[in-house]
Write a structure and sequence with these properties.
single chain, mainly beta, Immunoglobulin-like, 5-stranded antiparallel β-sheet, 9 strands, 45% strand
């Protein structure tokens, strides 16, 4: 049983590492944000999304990146900007924790293309 769990974990780790786009986030301008932080209902959070391309040129336009929010709403939308530091783009946006949402808030970014695409997810705990 233990070997199955370890094998499943390794397969998942390999699959996650196989994306063609690297997605990372800054929360309130911090890369090392506290994943256990509890946000208040109505609190605004600045999120910076970075997408670094592994394959260039990327066949999928940056505008085809899909962002899905659960328990959050966009207060200030952002625009994709070409990064001068890496081979990709970034976007700054502000989201707000919604009231009456029973689960943790989530921001999910997906990119689907023939080169495996990219995926990133943030979870926000709230009271």
């Amino acid at each position: 049983m233990r070997k199955r769990i370890v094998s499943l974990f390794l397969i998942m780790l390999i699959c996650i590492g196989g994306f063609a786009c690297n997605v990372r986030f800054l929360i309130n301008d911090k890369e090392d944000y506290d994943e256990n932080a509890i946000y208040q209902v109505g609190e605004e959070i600045k999120v910076t999304v970075f997408i670094d391309f592994v394959h260039t040129p990327c066949p999928l336009a940056i505008e085809n990146s899909k962002i899905k929010l659960e328990g959050l709403e966009i207060v200030k939308p952002g625009e994709w900007v070409k990064s001068e530091e890496s081979n990709g783009y970034y976007m700054e946006m502000t989201v707000k924790v919604m009231a009456d949402f029973p689960k943790d808030g989530k921001l999910i970014l997906t990119r689907s293309c023939d080169n495996e695409g990219g995926f990133g997810m943030l979870k926000f705990k709230h009271n």
